[in-house]
Structures are given as C-alpha cells and as structure tokens.
Amino acid sequence: xxxxxxxxxxxxxxxxxxxxxxxxxxxxxxxxxxxxxxxxxxxxxxxxxxxxxxxxxxxxxxxxxxxxxxxxxxxxxxxxxxxxxxxxxxxxxxxxxxxxxxxxxxxxxxxxxxxxxxxxxxxxxxxxxxxxxxxxxxxxxxxxxxxxxxxxxxxxxxxxxxxxxxxxxxxx
Length: 172
Fold this sequence. Notes:
With 172 residues, the protein is an alpha+beta fold. Helices cover 37% and strands 32% of the residues. It has five helices and seven strands, in the order βαααβββαβαββ. The strands form two sheets. Strands 1-2-3-4 form a four-stranded antiparallel β-sheet, sandwiched between helices. A three-stranded antiparallel β-sheet has the order 5-7-6, with helices on one face. α1 runs antiparallel to α2 and α2 crosses α3 (43-55). It is globular. The two termini are 21 Å apart. 30% of the residues are buried. The model has no long low-confidence stretch (mean pLDDT 95).
C-alpha cells in the first residue's frame, strides 16, 4: 500500500484500464461499465474527453469541470476518482470507485486520502462527500479520512437517502 499513487489518465495505462472496465462487465455492473465503455471503444477519445472535462471545456449542459485520476498499484489501475471543481448537490465534490477485483483491501481509504490532497491544488478547502446510508464501507472510509457528519439528504433522482459529510483540507 505504500507505493500507491494517483495519476492523470494516460495511454501508459491503456491495457490496465481496459481490464478495469471489463471487471465491471464481468460482475454485470452496468452503471460503471457504461461509464468506462468509451475507453474500450476509442481510448484516445476517452482520454481527450477526460482532459477537456478537467479544464471545463466541451461540457454538456449541467456538467461541471471534473478532474479524474487513476489509483495505481504495481502498474495496475485499481481505482478511479473524480474530483468535481464545484459541489454537486447529492454528490459532493468527490466520487470514486475501486475495481471489483481489488475491493476490501484498503484501496478505498487510500484513494480518498490521496484525492483530498489533490483538492487543494484545485482550490477546494471544504470537501463535501456523500454516500448511500446502506453503504457502510463508504461511510467508514469517509469517517476514517476525517469526515464530519452533516446530516442526511434525499436524492430524488436516485430515490435514496444519503449521508453528507465535510472534510476540511489544508496544505502541508
């Protein structure tokens, strides 16, 4: 775990990221598989889209600038984190996922910890995070990273209740 790091998406990790996307198809997780499907169809276009999104360019109506990073362990993509440059209601600033092949090994804690360091460069000092009230793993990860419970919110679009947290980050 000590050699983990976040990288901006790049061609260097193309094969590993393809395996990452396919791991979701293997478990029939359509949400995440569809999120990453374009990488399987045209990897360079996928990278271009992520780069443009991080710069706030070519965004669809209602989208905001979002920086994506890949969590790397031993040259393998094991997780993806998205840092929204503005808080999104019912989603907060950060969203992340860990490959089904690498879950329950502590990567969730590490990806959030490293993402919090990245928020400083983006200019976010008060990070807002949410998680489904039934997602005990995410709740623990957020709290272990210093999350302060703010209450619950109801996401009408997903028809689910979420815990809402804040984490104050400071430059070291």
